[in-house]
Write a structure and sequence with these properties.
Elements: H1 3-17, H2 33-45, H3 49-53, H4 65-79, H5 86-96, H6 104-113, H7 121-148, H8 155-172, H9 181-197, H10 210-216, E1 224-229, H11 235-249, E2 254-258, H12 263-275, H13 279-284, H14 289-302, E3 307-310, H15 317-331, E4 335-339, H16 354-372, E5 376-381, H17 391-394, H18 407-411, E6 414-419, E7 438-446, E8 452-459, E9 464-466
Parallel strand pairs: 1-5, 1-6, 2-3, 2-4, 4-5
Antiparallel strand pairs: 6-7, 7-8, 8-9
Helix pairs in contact: 2-4, 2-6, 2-7, 4-5, 7-8, 11-12, 12-14, 15-16
Length: 507
């Protein structure tokens, strides 16, 4: 073979062997093995170092399998309150039968030789945590990608699974640091000072209802408030009246997540409330001349109001968190309202029963309220137990009537019941006060204050609650049967178009 041919063949071979590797097949998983060694070494030379990183690191946080075993031995020694050093760790590994797997005593000794102190161990631990989280995300995304290519997998179920998986990852990797009390004291005094300068006595966001604010001092930051009631009691109307008071009257941004009604139905109710036009007329468009004038005059109050509505059906907790964070960040939302809790789902996760799922939802809502530092107001259904009880007190809702989960009562900072005795043909209370056209707002639980009843005027034809002293009520309709004013998505009849008289019963 000639030299030229040899040269050509050699060049050809070289070209083939030096072909670049496709990066898609050459990625290394996120890791920091050198930092892992430093952290393990620091844990063996400083007996106090473990307390700094114990809530950051777990054995699986380490990439190297042998490092996982060494950390597990260190963890076991600390939990048993035994000293941690080269000798004790080596003995623990030997006892577990993993000493040779990690490289023997020599490797354990080498770990301590690479570090002089534990000065930066927390910083190094957080790097390892980030690498571990990145590996988890890669693994999770790989599973989702594989299933997405499978034509037999339902796409919506896969979306729910993806949401659930991401939610679990975020929950597992959340870490709440402690704080020294001094800045908290300063914060509490600042709130107290601001409250003292306000003659209304409100420390939170007003509901727009005077007597209710007197008891609650407004909706408080980080609180989970549950508004519950049987169908036809007016839960949605009450919630919308609160939203209208806050957003329209006080110009405070509010987000309203309606899982039951669509946005148009929701706005129709708001128009009825603000413009004092009967809901059925807004539905059929048969407005009288004075009603058109009233609509034209009052609609400007709604226009431009900082009220943001979302009618996504079957919303998951993960989706709510994502949207809520964006609304708070971009729109400055101060209150979030959800109608209603039982129509949500827990990120597609599998539960043994509905009670477990509702418990997860309520716990997540409380966590979200704390995270965003705003009040979270969620509507909830009551079970049918109340229907089987007799008399004025029997029809009165109780905490045990909360539907599907006792966890709702446990997680909530405040539980309010919307109760209209008139719906059950009960027209007087035990003191002889007229209850027609009235609704009792029963504060059954209040973690930060008193409980009690507040009496509000209810104008069903306008889907509106108001202070009794402010209400200009229409004549009481003869029909006391009740019914939905504007139909809901589920047709459950959440409100009853009843009017009433202006009778103020003291609390």
């Amino acid at each position: 073979m000639s030299d030229s041919n040899k040269s050509a063949n050699t060049g050809s071979r070289r070209k083939k062997t030096s072909a670049p590797i496709d990066p898609a097949y050459g990625h290394l998983q996120p890791q920091a093995t050198d930092i892992e060694k430093v952290v393990l070494g620091a844990l063996m030379i400083d007996k106090d170092a473990f307390s700094v990183v114990s809530d950051i690191l777990r054995p699986e946080t380490f990439y190297e399998p042998r490092h996982q075993k060494i950390y597990q031995a260190i963890q076991k020694l600390n939990f048993d309150e035994n000293p941690v050093d080269i000798m004790t760790v080596t003995n623990e590994l030997q006892r577990e039968g993993t000493l040779e797997d990690v490289g023997g005593p020599t490797y354990v000794l080498d770990l301590t030789a690479q570090v002089a102190s534990s000065a930066h161990i927390e910083y190094h631990a957080k790097i390892l945590q980030q690498k571990f989280l990145a590996r988890q995300l890669i693994s999770f995304a790989s599973v989702i990608e594989t299933k997405a290519f499978d034509p037999t997998v339902d796409t919506e179920e896969l979306m729910q699974e993806a949401e659930s998986g991401l939610f679990e990852l975020s929950q597992k990797n959340m870490r709440q640091d402690y704080t020294q009390i001094d800045p908290v004291i300063r914060q509490a005094i600042d709130i107290l000072t601001k409250a003292s300068a306000d003659s209304s006595g409100l420390t939170g966001i007003t509901s727009g209802f005077t007597k209710l604010d007197d008891i609650t001092s407004g909706w408080q930051k980080s609180d989970l408030v549950i508004i519950a009631g049987r169908p036809a009691m007016g839960k949605t109307s009450f919630a919308l009246s609160i939203a209208k008071n806050i957003a329209v009257d006080y110009k405070i941004p509010v987000a309203f997540f309606s899982l039951e009604m669509n946005n148009v139905q929701l706005v129709d109710r708001l128009i009825s409330n603000v413009c004092e036009i009967e809901g059925k007329k807004i539905m059929n468009g048969q407005l009288a001349r004075d009603e058109w004038e009233r609509l034209d005059k009052n609609l400007s109050r709604l226009t431009g109001a900082p009220l943001f509505v979302d009618d996504t059906p079957g919303m998951s907790i993960f989706e709510l968190r994502t949207k809520a964070r964006r609304l708070v960040r971009e729109k400055g939302v101060k209150v979030i309202m959800i109608d209603y809790l039982q129509l949500m789902n827990a990120n597609g996760a599998r539960f043994g029963n509905r009670q477990e799922e509702v418990s997860t939802i309520s716990r997540s809502l409380k966590g979200l309220a704390k995270e965003l530092d705003i009040p979270m107001i969620a509507l909830s259904q009551l079970n049918r137990t109340v229907e089987g009880r007799e008399g004025l007190e029997g029809k009165r809702p109780q905490l045990s009537d909360l539907r599907e989960s006792g966890a709702i009562e446990q997680d909530a900072d405040m539980v309010l019941f919307v109760h209209r005795p008139e719906y059950y043909h009960l027209y007087e209370d035990e003191k002889g006060n007229d209850l027609r056209g009235k609704a009792q707002i029963i504060i059954a639980k209040h973690r930060k204050g008193a409980t009690g009843d507040v009496l509000l005027a209810f104008q069903g034809q306008y889907t509106r609650f108001s202070n009794p002293e402010d209400a200009m009520l229409a004549p009481l309709p003869n029909d006391l049967g009740g019914g939905e004013i504007i139909s809901s998505r589920l047709g459950q009849g959440d409100d009853d178009p009843l009017g009433g008289s202006d009778i103020n019963v003291p609390f």
